[in-house]
Design a protein that fits this description.
Shape: globular
Radius of gyration: 20 Å
Helix content: 40-55%
Distance between the termini: 56 Å
Number of helices: 12
Structural class: alpha+beta
Length: 332
């Protein structure tokens, strides 16, 4: 046998990580799970402010946490660790073996090397699922977020996409398959409260100055200097794309997280009673307003100073929401 394609349980989604997690969950036994729940249980909401990276744009913001996949499976009680490799060829060999063992693989990739993206920018950490392989044609078959059908990725491209050391996140062939059939935890209220609390607590108490509410403060303080960047136009455009276009579901993931809170309110009525769902949706709309402000700059003059009042408003909305959530859940 030189070709095998597993039964694909992919559904079109909004974000690469939460869509891939949902697809894997359905294959391994959870048939009624939706993407927003995957994002929320993955404690996906976050903020990064990254400078001095050896790429363009010169300054990069990111609006979700990095360990989404790890957080999700850990919250389900599933041991999680990215399988990594010392050699590129071994990463491909492991993928092929998984498919022949009827195990689709959740993997992290750099979109620069995925041929169907046609991207001129490195963007690592992009999650997709591998469902099949043809050794004769030397290609894998994968599902990816907004594409309804399986896509082919030649071995040579997959090797580079999997084993990327470009940019701000490194991947050494990162791949994961759950070790057993999955189910939602019986104590969903407790698990959801923990995931929501962790999300807001980590925004307020980040592990590094590049993350969370402190990084948002730094963004505001340095926004005037963006006009001095050689690639200021692309930096502004990429900021717009990261918030609104690149798999966030719009509004910097805040609209997707609002949908999660709406689902979670079935178990935690306080979320609706305290209007926290509505507040998150308003945050999403404010992020969307910020995104289009940067889009306008990218098409005109480097008037970054004009963004300061809007970013201040956004900062205070974020801080107020997460502080309220931490206080509410720490006492409930």
């Amino acid at each position: 046998m030189d070709r095998k394609v597993l039964k694909c349980t992919h559904r079109v989604g909004r974000h690469c990580g939460s869509t891939s997690i949902r697809d894997i969950c359905e294959y391994f036994g959870i048939s009624d799970i939706e993407e927003p729940l995957c994002f929320g249980l993955g404690e996906g909401l976050g903020f990064w402010y990254l400078k001095d990276i050896p790429l363009s744009p010169s300054i990069l913001i990111h609006v979700r946490t990095y360990p989404l996949e790890k957080n999700f499976f850990t919250n389900l009680g599933v041991p999680f660790k990215w399988e990594q490799f010392s050699e590129r060829a071994k990463a491909l060999e492991a993928l092929i073996k998984k498919i022949y063992n009827n195990q689709p693989a959740l993997i992290q990739t750099d979109i620069y090397y995925l041929p169907y993206f046609n991207s001129s920018t490195h963007f690592p950490g992009h999650a997709i699922v591998v469902w099949g392989v043809s050794e004769k044609k030397r290609e894998f078959y994968v599902s990816d977020t907004k594409h309804p059908d399986l896509l082919s990725v030649p071995f040579d491209y997959m090797e580079q996409a999997l084993y990327s050391t470009e940019g701000f996140f490194k991947s050494l062939g990162n791949q994961f398959t759950p070790p057993f059939l999955l189910s939602l935890p019986p104590d969903m209220e407790k698990v959801l409260k923990r995931a929501i609390f962790n999300t807001s607590y980590n925004m307020l108490n980040p592990s590094s100055p590049q993350e969370g509410i402190k990084a948002m403060r730094r963004w505001i303080e340095e926004i005037d200097t963006w006009a001095q960047l050689e690639d200021w136009r692309w930096t502004a455009r990429f900021t717009y794309q990261v918030i609104e276009k690149r798999g966030t579901g719009g509004g910097g993931f805040r609209l997707l997280y609002g949908d999660f809170l709406k689902e979670a309110a079935q178990y935690i009525p306080l979320l609706r009673e305290r209007h926290l769902i509505d507040k998150m949706y308003r945050l999403g709309e404010k992020w969307r307003e910020v995104a289009y402000g940067f889009k306008e700059i990218s098409e005109g003059d480097p008037t970054f100073t004009n963004m300061r009042p809007l970013l201040e408003e956004l900062y205070h909305m974020e801080y107020s929401f997460h502080l309220t959530m931490v206080k509410l859940l720490s006492s409930s």
